[in-house]
Automatic annotation (TrEMBL):
Molecular-function GO terms, alphabetical: transferase activity
Domain UPF0033 as annotated: residue spans: 7-31
Matching Gene3D superfamilies: TusA-like domain
UniProt protein name: Sulfurtransferase TusA family protein
Keyword Transport: no
Organism expressing this protein natively: Bacillus yapensis
Domain of life: Bacteria
Amino acid sequence: MDSAKVLDVKGLACPMPIVKTRKVIGELDSGQVLEIEIHATDKGAKNDLAAWAASGGHELIQHEEEHGVLKFWIKKG
């Protein structure tokens, strides 16, 4: 998937992935996609990011787990 920016927040605990995501997505234009990589130990990240994206008018368009890393793609609303 084509991403405008990749945010690596591996090793950070909640709420830091959301805090950093909020900052970086603010730098993107509407419709651009942010790819977020989170270490798989933060299993709550899927629900947290989905809820955060919906509440901010953004869209969680895809997520997957690869080699112990959770990856999310969020389209800025």
